[in-house]
Amino acid sequence: MEPLIVIPARMASSRLPGKPLAMIGDAPMIVQVWRRACESGVGRVVVAAGEAEIAEAITKAGGEAVLTKPDHPSGSDRIFEAVQAIDPEGQAPSVINLQGDLPTLDPSLIREVAELLEHGADITTLAAEITDESERTNPNVTKAVISLHDGQSDGEGHSYGRALYFTRATAPTGEGPLYHHIGIYGYTREALSQFVGLDPSPLEIRERLEQLRALEAGMRIDIAVVDTVPLGVDTQHDLEKARRALEQMS
Fold first, then answer.
1. Which of 73, 99, 145, 191 has a CA between 20 and 30 Å from the CA of residue 223?
2. Taking 90 as the threshold, does the pLDDT of residue 113 lie above it?
3. What mean pLDDT, rounded, does the chain reach?
């Protein structure tokens, strides 16, 4: 069985209310993200919708959506409910958690996350080297601290290694690159079930980074280092950038 790609989406957003249905080009943002997921060719794509209007937008576009509880504390909890509904027997070996605010995403990044799971990690994700000096000290940019090994590459030819920590601080210190974490995750089915069953951890609460819960529980997270950070839409300014970018892509 192929992996499941699940896209969690909800209307509540403090900085850009209703953003899943914000129009980008000829379709709402959530439909654009669904299209990018389908273009990856990784597997079945399902939107885990917190509200009926999101599900309706996807089904109108010809996609598949599952209506979930609106009050989930995280996207991981939302995708877990959706996965339990669409694949209760656990036939799909893994799940890709794709954020619903990446409308200009390169579909190859989804393949990267899925293929990295073949190396034995519980969870996989991505990072890119920081090239903008201001991002090194920006607490809104999550840094991944990675143990990289020479010659270790994934199926797409990118280096990868073990995640040691995630932080909003500038880390590690000293000379060398810093890495901007990209919030696309791959889980084995067992890892997803384990993760959502854990209580929020002390470092997760302190840093406000959900992935630290997995590390504190001893779960293995592998990270592939890719070339670019996809544009995430959190503000009206981001939305306008995404609209321009999609126009250039089409």
1. 73
2. yes
3. 93
State residue 16's pLDDT score. 87
Superfamily of domain 106-229: Spore Coat Polysaccharide Biosynthesis Protein SpsA; Chain A (3.90.550.10)
Dump pLDDT digits (tens) for 195-207: 999 999 999 999 9
Contact 109, 16 (CB under 8 A): no
